[in-house]
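User: What would this chain look like folded?
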Amino acid sequence: MSDRPAPKWLPSPNFGPRRGDLQPDLIVIHFTAMASAEAALERLCDAEAEVSAHYLIGGNGTLWQLVEEEMRAWHAGAGSWQGRDDINSRSIGIELDNTGAHPFAEPQMSALEALLREVMARWSIPATGVIGHSDMAPARKYDPGARFDWARLAGQGLAVWPETPSQPGDFARDAAQFGYPEAEEAEILAAFRARFRPGADGPIDDVDRSVMADLARRFGVDRRQHNA
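Assistant: Here's the prediction, encoded as structure tokens.
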């Protein structure tokens, strides 16, 4: 049982039932790209905006819950991961108060880690199921961006991280096996580098190919078995 305070309940009208009897097997992490947590809350609870998330975490670690986990929040939009679409029906959405231009604050990261442990345990979601918005929609989204510390989460079993790879592979093939949807190679490369090689620049190289090959080898799936 967690010793952290319960989330502040601020109900959003923007939700519905999960479709097709689906339950969460993914957690999607976002940044708000707004001026403040209060501005984000106003938008996420605005019926005309037609967007929401299950949770929002402020920079100081304050946690708000906007939608019950059993319900389908409207946070992911079009995209897919490991061949699975309708991500909203398959996921829990967590928004972080951050513009993407600065590091994520320590209280915020600590609150996120505590929440991830609870949600992952509650829904039996593995570390492979914790992804960024840019992972499932690389053609149109960048969050949580290169400032987000994925390695920190992975060190606690809350996400995945590559090991030291050996042999470069086919980047596009391995990206598809790891889980990325169809998109331009440059778009997938940008999303991949933001998560696994922050600061890397220039044309695709053998380090990119090696890291992606390792991710595909250890965490990739047969999409034919994963699109149920």
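DSSP finds nine helices and eight strands in the chain. If you want, I can go into more detail on any region.
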